[in-house]
Design a protein that fits this description.
- This protein is of the alpha+beta class.
- The chain contains 12 helices and 12 strands.
- Strands 7-12-8-9-10-11 form a 6-stranded antiparallel β-sheet. A two-stranded parallel ribbon has the order 1-6. The protein has a two-stranded antiparallel ribbon with strand order 2-3.
- Helix 1 runs antiparallel to helix 2 and helix 7 crosses helix 8.
- The longest helix has 19 residues.
Length: 332
């Protein structure tokens, strides 16, 4: 076991994450500018809209939407107060939380459906002092609280003994990775953690590994590659160009696909997996990349890099379509 450091950080000092806060945000426009071309329209809230010119493959002008990713406020563990009683209670609560963190295992399995009871206890005690985006992620996906509570360590990398756990998902050639897997979840990405912002590199890693057979490009390696090649959007996850130009740089064939059920099914039946970005809805409060890789009757099988439970479900076109903002098709 690595030596743990049990000092609680104040929220303003949470490593990497708190100066730029996002709500399950994993994407930005197709290029590193606010004006980008998209084949799909989006009606999400908190957006600014621009109309792009008609492209050679589009019969009408396309409305592009950029989801607002403004920072959210944070709260310190204990507000300053003149009351000695309140200060005493605050110190007692910090001591209790620190003691609980000492008992937290140095490793956790992300491929399960529920967090441990100890994680739940820590999450509840620390909840009001967590950054808002971590509250949202933990509330949407309770097992992700395993990663959230470990951000309370002064240095999660030192406190965690990263292990590879058996993956229960059989997705054919595609490995299933979770972005907050302890092997890479606490790596820096986009000014935050891979755990919160790394859905882009994680899905591209799955696609690349499945199509090429090269499993060395895991999400941690892909995240570093995306940073080195300019596809990490500081404070906003990944530029959407990672899924087109970035994939091509890696040697994959990548193209955009229209939002059309028959076209999507045809691509998948040819062995061409799809990456889609979804806006606010079932999967996210901001933007999120997922994979559609197979059919189960009329429904799609997906790989959600943040939520294992979503991956175990199949999804109808009617459920997915209102949330989809862009689609990319891949082959090798």
């Amino acid at each position: 076991m690595n030596n743990k450091k049990y000092l609680l950080t104040t929220v303003s000092g949470l490593a990497l994450a708190t100066s730029i806060l996002i709500i399950s945000s994993c994407s930005m426009p197709l290029t590193p500018t606010i004006h980008s071309s998209s084949r799909l329209s989006n009606s999400s809230t908190n957006t600014s809209e621009v109309t792009s010119p008609v492209s050679s493959t589009t019969t009408e002008s396309t409305t592009t939407t950029v989801t607002s990713q403004t920072a959210l406020p944070t709260k310190p563990f204990h507000e300053e107060t003149p009351s000695s009683e309140t200060t005493s209670n605050g110190a007692s609560e910090d001591t209790e939380l620190t003691d609980l963190l000492k008992d937290l295992p140095s490793s956790f399995n992300p491929y399960v459906l529920a967090p441990s009871s100890l994680t739940e206890e820590i999450y509840k005690k620390a909840y009001n002092n967590l950054p808002e985006y971590m509250q949202i992620q933990g509330d949407r996906n309770p097992v992700a609280r395993e990663y959230v509570v470990r951000t309370l360590f002064e240095n999660p990398h030192e406190a965690i003994d990263a292990q590879a756990y058996e993956n229960p998902v059989n997705a054919g050639p595609y490995p299933y990775y979770i972005q907050w897997d302890e092997r890479w979840g606490f790596d820096e990405y986009s000014g935050a953690y891979m755990a919160s912002d790394g859905c882009g590199p994680t899905v591209l890693s799955m696609i690349y590994s499945g199509l090429t057979g090269d499993k060395s490009m895991d999400p941690g390696v892909m995240g570093q590659w995306a940073k080195d090649h300019g596809y990490s959007a500081y404070g906003n996850g990944s530029y959407r160009s990672l899924m087109l130009e970035g994939a091509r740089e890696l040697g994959l064939e990548s193209s955009e696909l229209y939002l059309d059920y028959n076209a999507m099914v045809e691509a998948i039946e040819k062995g061409h997996p799809l990456i889609v970005i979804v806006g606010p809805g079932h999967f996210t409060s901001g933007g999120h990349f997922i994979i559609l890789y197979a059919m189960d009757g009329d429904n799609f099988k997906i790989l959600d890099p943040f939520n294992y439970e979503n991956t175990l479900m199949t999804w109808s076109y009617g459920d997915l379509a209102p949330q989809i903002e862009n689609i990319w098709e891949y082959s090798y």
